[in-house]
Amino acid sequence: MTDDQTVFPLLSSAEFQRRLLAWFDAHGRKRLPWQQDKSPYRVWVSEIMLQQTQVATVIPYYERFMARFPTVEALAEAPQDEVLHLWTGLGYYARARNLHKAAREVVSEHDGDFPVHSLDAMAALPGIGRSTAGAIIAISTGRRAVILDGNVKRSLTRLHALPGWPGRSAVERHLWALAEHYTPEARLPDYTQAMMDLGATLCRRGQPECGRCPFDDVCLAHARGEERRFPEAKPKKATPRRVTQMLLLRDAEGRVLLQQRPPTGLWGGLWCFPQFEEEAALLAWLDSHAPGAELEAPWSSFTHVFSHFRLEITPRPARTRRLAAVTESGSLWYNPRQPASVGLAAPVKALLDTLGDDLLA
């Protein structure tokens, strides 16, 4: 697709809205936790959690999060460790760090009130961006704002059989123009939720249910039998592979040494086992920090997949009677039988659960 190609709407905005809202009134989701007692804060938390995560997964996390942090002030005042702890298992931890940063910015720069009067001001908050800002404004205030999340991109791309990867700037511009055309002036909370529901429940990535879709008679991808062709995938590159050895160092009481990762980068701010690319570095670290520690046979390696690379992890259990490492800043001895409320990377939590089971066996 070239920049000068024009994609025209298939329906008038009024007809598109009529069909979509009639479907939503009959089949849309209206009792989700964040749809009750709507506020910019509650909608914002839900929108961040829902990025790249399904509704069913988000609901229990959202309910626990709101019980602990019922207001943006409560979230802003909390230590990052506690925020990350409540996010453990939800993945994409940069979302949690940005959520915390944004909460502090809302409190310090906007007196605790989200700047929902301005799309630009909302989009400027950490971790939000144009589409999420539009969703927060539309759902929480009813003011007209346009969204273009992954679900909406998929639905509009199929409806118009729009070629090209939606991440390309030219394709994305066409999608924003279509989203702008179809967005109404009224019923913005329902319309916005309906657009997200359409992609999440009918126009799904793998198995779209075209027979139930309110646009099945005009959808170009469906007419061609090419629903799975659209949206076109991002051009593939070879997925890089990295390797790491995680040191599972236990003391005589069964506690395990954890270290806090740097605030940015891989697993930023989370607590992890000491990691080493090579065994020589691991052995040198043990000689320096826990002399006399007994390194045991490695556990089976496993792979943790990130969006941009694959990490092959080899757990290296060891035992020590000396606690010199605990004096280092950013280290703690974690008791799997009495877990501390700290944020843990998913593979670290799984390994700690295994160690805890061994202790209880």
UniProtKB/TrEMBL annotation:
SUPFAM superfamilies: DNA-glycosylase, Nudix
EC number: 3.2.2.31
Origin: domain of life: Bacteria
One Gene Ontology molecular-function label: purine-specific mismatch base pair DNA N-glycosylase activity
The keyword DNA repair is assigned to this record: yes
Cofactor note: Binds 1 [4Fe-4S] cluster.
Catalytic activity, as annotated: Hydrolyzes free adenine bases from 7,8-dihydro-8-oxoguanine:adenine mismatched double-stranded DNA, leaving an apurinic site
The HhH-GPD domain, residue ranges: 49-201
Enzyme class: hydrolase
Keywords: 4Fe-4S, DNA damage, DNA repair, Glycosidase, Hydrolase, Iron, Iron-sulfur, Metal-binding
Coiled-coil region: none
Needed cofactors: [4Fe-4S] cluster
PANTHER family assigned to the protein according to its UniProt record, in alphabetical order: ADENINE DNA GLYCOSYLASE
Primary role: Adenine glycosylase active on G-A mispairs. MutY also corrects error-prone DNA synthesis past GO lesions which are due to the oxidatively damaged form of guanine: 7,8-dihydro-8-oxoguanine (8-oxo-dGTP).
UniProt family annotation: Belongs to the Nth/MutY family.
Protein name per its UniProtKB record: Adenine DNA glycosylase
Source organism of the structure: Halomonas salifodinae
Source organism phylogeny: Bacteria, Pseudomonadati, Pseudomonadota, Gammaproteobacteria, Oceanospirillales
